[in-house]
Amino acid sequence: MESRAKLLGHPVHQMLVVFPLGLLATAVIFDVIFLANGDPMMSSVAYWLIAAGLIGAVVAAPFGTRDWFAIPKGTRAKRIGAMHGGGNMIVAVLFLVSWWLRPEPPAGPAVSALVLSFAGAALAMVTAWLGGELVDRLGIGVDDNANVNAPSSLKRDPARRDAHYAGQR
């Protein structure tokens, strides 16, 4: 099924998710740099990157939610979409609490704030894979003839995979 929300012919959600993913991942990188060298500037950068990433998540989420509601009920795509969206809500909460626990820059973050942001980044890797599964494997958001029940891309059954793609040509 094609995305219901498009901009210049492309799905809006897929265009917007790069911002929260990139900003939040970069915040974790700056947290690691802070841990390595103790430079308070790195902590400040991470603080503001998390704030921007959370704003990006709030902007991207409604478009993904709209697309999810259009997926047929009882399909693998609907289940994967629910895990993707629910997981991303948890990612946002982890980063929000991490941001809230951080003192106003330039002070460094508490260990608990760092643990939450690292956990959020780890979970974001899983939810990003799920989003890729929705788009790349299942065709959600890009193809009205999407195979909403295609097997997981982790399955190693080439005959089944080839039959799936042959039917899409």
Q: Count helical runs.
A: 6
Give the overall silhouette.
elongated
According to DSSP, the number of beta strands is 2
Uncertain ranges: none
Elements, N to C (H/E): EEHHHHHH
Mean pLDDT: 88
Q: What class do helices, strands and sheet pairing give?
A: mainly alpha
Pfam families: DUF2231
Domain DUF2231: 9-143
Keywords: Membrane, Transmembrane, Transmembrane helix
InterPro entries: DUF2231_TM (IPR019251)
Report on the architecture of this protein.
The protein is elongated, with a radius of gyration of 18 Å. The protein has 169 residues and is mainly alpha-helical. It contains six helices and two strands. The chain has one domain (6-166). The chain has helices at residues 12-16, 18-37, 40-70, 76-101, 111-137, 158-166, and strands at 6-7, 10-11. Strands 1-2 form a two-stranded antiparallel sheet. The longest helix is centred in the N-terminal third of the chain and has 31 residues, at 40-70.
